[in-house]
Amino acid sequence: MPLATARVVTDRPARYIKQLVSHMGHKATTDLASDGRGTITVAAGTCILTPTPDRLELTATAVDLPSLAGVQDVITRHLVRFATQEELSVAWTAPVDGAALDLTAPVVDTYLLGHHTPADDILGGLAAATREATAGAAHMQVSSDEGALLTLLTRLTGARFAVEVGVFTGYSTLCIARGLADGGRVLACDVSEEWAAIGRPYWERAGVADRIDLRIAPALDTLRALGAEPVIDIAFIDADKGTYPAYYEEIVRRLRPGGLVVLDNVFLGGRVLDPAYQEEQHLAMRHLNDLIAGDDRVDSVMLPVRDGVTIARRR
Question: Does pTM surpass 0.85?
Answer without folding.
Answer: yes
